[in-house]
Structures are given as structure tokens and as C-alpha cells.
Specification:
The chain is α/β, with parallel strands linked by helices. The chain is built from twelve helices and 20 strands. It holds the Pfam family AMP-binding.
Length: 468
């Protein structure tokens, strides 16, 4: 069985990636609504002779009580004035806003523009202040976000809001004219990554909208570098023939290079910028639509581009402002920071959340559109032996060694330097993090230890840069 195989963890700090080392639930607890046929198909997927080593097991945790919320997610918001309702609600239930009301800084009747913006650091410092006190916490799922500086943030998520993202994805794929229906002969979705170490798992999508009696599609998170035998990897992907590929720019390029006999109905790119050339390459190879989805772990999906001509806000409870460096509004068509208000996750309603990303906002027949979106760019480092190494591997290492923020740079001559801000009070040695990067790249790594995040420079700090 692939789940019982062992694989070496490439660095002693990455113990969380030990295969099945953190599994604590039964399959019945992971998928309370999955029928016997679904469990049997899932077991067959896990036991496929060419399957990767499954490092983790996870399920959607949905119950029958979540169905009304998922059904509502099929159609988008119906309340045109949901922002005002959200402002009123948080002043009665969210500690940060209850405190603001007591101190006279804002209240349930305040205009959105009167409220202070919220930063990622606010959530890192005290995320509990932004969690409503009247929401039962017995179903909290934990999502992790690495952020632009590398400071990890644990985000409380609700199973229904996570599943609603899948329902939204179905709507977005359908809007392109592509047909994505339950097909037990294929993998419904493959989340494709390409990195040294990663969580991989097989799962079932019980939230997938389908006719009564149709089976729940299966999905898998797979790591292109996670197979000992590349031929086995290729056989698995071709046999599963995923209907939708969810990925990012660098693993997508690798998948295109493999030249496998795949027939996706759609490709969804997220996490990093999608160059036009890569979009065109997908269209040429597979002839399917490409959805460039913009969002954050904290906010969920915000906007989508299907043609490279701007990102259109998705039809859900999400509102966007564009602000200048001082926090003031800018006219439509002027670049500034993207600030998001969203009411999709009952555990974390956000008002005026500063993303650190930049774009201009325009309004046309498509709706509200973010133009010239500047998000996170993919970065490749070069090891001493000449092989490319994706920056996600460095993210895992540097977070595992307890850095609050960092910037890793490689010069044109191949030299590497790490500027590191350690987590306060934990007594961790940034030199150990630099040494881990040195082992990863096979190169010496210079180190500068910072006292505060301001040492990373103004604006949204970038974690990685290369001159190679």
C-alpha cells in the first residue's frame, strides 16, 4: 500500500511530512456523508499500484446540516447590502469591533470607509480578536498561510466555507462553457504541486454539485517530484486523467513538459502570477479554458481572470477597495493596494483587510475588475549542481526553523544571502535556518539577522529574489 511506504524527510526540521505521522481521524469522521461506494472508490485510489506515497489523510468533514449553505453557494449572494449587515453584526460579536464600539471609535451604523484597515500582522498577533464570540468552535479547521514575508498564519476555517470554494469553482468552470460533471472513471480534480516535500493525499468531494444518485468525485493532491519512479507517476496521472487541474505556474510548466496524454476540461492556476505565455501554452496543448484565480487563505477566492484581461470579482460576499500608501481611497483606474472585505467564513469575517497586493480597479460590463494585478511571482533558485529549486521548498525550511520573516536572495554569481527575523522569545538560531538552506542548495549562505520586519524594506516585502 502506498500509504505504508516510508520516504526520507529531507531535513530534520520537516518532521510534519513524515508519511501518515499526524493522522488522527477515521474515514467516517473525515467524510460523514460519503456512501459505501464512495469509500470503496477512495480506497481503490489510495491503493492504486502507481499511486504516490500518501503523506496525509484529510476530508471535507461535511454533514447533512451543511447542505443549505452549499446550495446557497451555487447562486451567489442575494443580499445587495450585505456589507452594512456585516458591519452591524461584527460590532456585536467580534472582540476587536466590540472594543472599538465601547471606545467610541466605530459602531454598528458606521460606514465601511470609517473603519480601520486590518493587516496580516494584526491576525498574526491576535487572530482570536477577529473571531466572533457567538459561533460554536467545535468544527474549526486550521488552514496555514505563509504570507509574503514568510510569517506563518493559522487561519480558522469552517468546513462549509471551504466546501463553498469548490462550489464556486464549479460555477466558474461552467461559466467558460466547459462541462465538469461527476465521472467515476476519472479523477474529478488534481491539485498538482512540484516541490521537494509536500502533503499529498486522496480525498472525496462530497460538496460537488451533481444530480441525485451521482457519485461524489474523487480528488488528489500530488507532488510531481514525489514519486521514486517517474514512469509510475506518468502512468498514474494518465490513468486518473483528472478533469480539472489545480496548480501554479511552475508545476504547470513541469506538467506541460511531461507531455502526458491528459484531457482536462479546465486548468485553474493560483498562488502565483500566471504569465500570458503559460496560458497560451495550456490552450495550445489541451484546448481548455484557463482560470487564473486570485485570493488569499484569509479571504478565500476574490477574483478570476479567464482571458488575461483583468481579474473580475467573483459573485460572492466579497468587496474590494483600492487604497494608497496612507490608507486613502484612489480613483478608479489608479493603482493602489487591494483591500478586501469578505463575509464567507463564519470564523473569520474580515473588514478592510490589506492584502499587500496591488492593482487598479475598473468597472465595465463584466463587473468590478482588478487590472494589472501584482501578486506573488514564482521564483527558482539554482543549486550548486545547476538544478533549479522552487522557492516553496525554502518556505518550508525557513518556517520550520522558526523565522518570523525573511528574504532570501541569490546573486548572478550564484551566491546566496538570507536576511532573517527570528520569532521573539523562542531562542531559535537563525544560523540553523541558513545552514538548512545551504544544504538544500549545496552553496554557502550568508546571514543578516534583523531586529524587526522594517529591515525587509518598504511596501510588501518579497520573500525571494534572484539575479541568476
Amino acid at each position: 500500500m502506498p500509504t505504508t511506504e516510508s520516504s526520507p524527510v529531507p531535513d530534520p526540521a520537516l518532521t510534519g511530512y513524515t508519511p501518515m505521522g499526524s493522522v488522527g481521524l477515521t474515514d467516517a469522521e473525515r467524510w460523514p456523508t460519503l456512501d459505501d461506494d464512495g469509500h470503496a472508490r477512495l480506497a481503490a485510489l489510495r491503493a492504486h499500484p502507481d499511486a504516490p506515497v500518501w503523506v496525509h489523510a484529510t476530508g471535507d468533514r461535511l454533514t447533512a446540516a451543511d447542505e443549505p449553505a452549499l446550495a446557497a453557494a451555487e447562486h451567489g449572494p442575494t443580499d445587495a447590502d450585505w456589507v452594512a449587515g456585516l458591519i452591524a453584526r461584527v460590532h456585536g460579536s467580534v472582540p476587536a469591533y466590540r472594543r472599538a464600539q465601547r471606545e467610541g471609535r466605530s459602531g454598528p451604523g458606521s460606514d465601511l470607509s470609517e473603519l480601520p484597515t486590518v493587516t496580516r500582522q494584526d491576525l498574526v498577533d491576535d487572530v482570536a480578536s477577529y473571531v466572533p464570540v457567538d459561533v460554536p468552535l467545535d468544527r474549526v479547521l486550521e488552514g496555514s498561510s505563509s504570507g509574503s514575508t514568510g510569517a506563518a498564519l493559522n487561519v480558522p476555517l469552517h468546513p462549509a466555507s471551504v466546501a463553498a470554494d469548490l462550489v464556486l469553482l464549479q460555477r466558474l468552470v461552467a461559466a467558460t462553457g466547459a462541462v465538469w460533471e461527476s465521472d467515476p472513471g476519472r479523477l474529478g480534480l488534481a491539485n498538482v504541486i512540484d516541490q521537494r516535500t509536500a502533503f499529498t493525499y486522496a480525498s472525496a468531494m462530497t460538496a460537488f454539485r451533481r444530480p441525485a444518485g451521482a457519485p461524489a468525485p474523487l480528488m488528489a493532491r500530488v507532488n510531481l517530484s514525489g514519486w521514486a519512479d517517474p514512469d509510475s507517476r506518468d502512468r498514474f496521472l494518465v490513468a486518473m486523467d483528472p478533469q480539472v487541474l489545480s496548480t501554479a505556474t511552475l508545476p504547470l510548466l513541469r506538467l506541460l513538459d511531461l507531455d502526458l496524454d491528459l484531457h482536462p476540461v479546465a486548468v485553474v492556476s493560483g498562488a502565483t502570477d500566471l504569465p500570458t505565455a503559460v496560458r497560451d501554452a495550456v490552450a495550445a496543448r489541451w484546448g481548455c479554458p484557463v482560470l487564473d484565480l486570485y485570493g488569499l487563505r484569509e479571504t478565500g477566492p476574490v477574483a478570476v481572470s479567464t482571458d488575461g484581461r483583468g481579474h473580475v470579482l467573483v459573485a460572492r460576499r466579497v468587496h474590494v477597495e483600492i487604497l494608497d500608501a496612507s490608507g486613502g481611497p484612489v480613483p478608479d483606474g489608479t493603482r493602489g493596494e487591494i483591500v478586501v472585505t469578505v463575509d464567507e467564513n463564519p470564523y473569520l469575517p474580515l473588514l478592510r483587510y490589506r492584502t499587500g497586493d496591488h492593482a487598479a480597479l475598473v468597472r465595465d460590463v463584466r463587473g468590478t475588475v482588478l487590472v494589472g494585478l501584482e501578486g506573488r511571482a514564482p521564483v527558482l533558485f539554482r543549486a550548486a549542481d545547476g538544478t533549479p529549486r522552487p522557492s516553496i521548498d525554502a518556505t518550508q525550511l525557513l518556517q520550520a526553523y522558526g523565522l518570523a520573516a525573511y528574504h532570501l536572495h541569490q546573486g548572478a554569481d550564484g551566491s546566496v544571502h538570507l536576511r532573517a527575523l527570528p520569532l521573539r522569545g523562542l531562542g531559535l538560531d537563525p544560523r540553523a535556518a541558513a545552514d538548512a538552506v545551504a544544504r538544500w542548495l549545496g552553496r554557502p549562505v550568508g546571514l543578516t539577522v534583523l531586529d524587526d520586519v522594517g529591515g525587509l524594506g518598504p511596501g510588501k516585502p518579497r520573500r525571494f529574489s534572484v539575479d541568476v
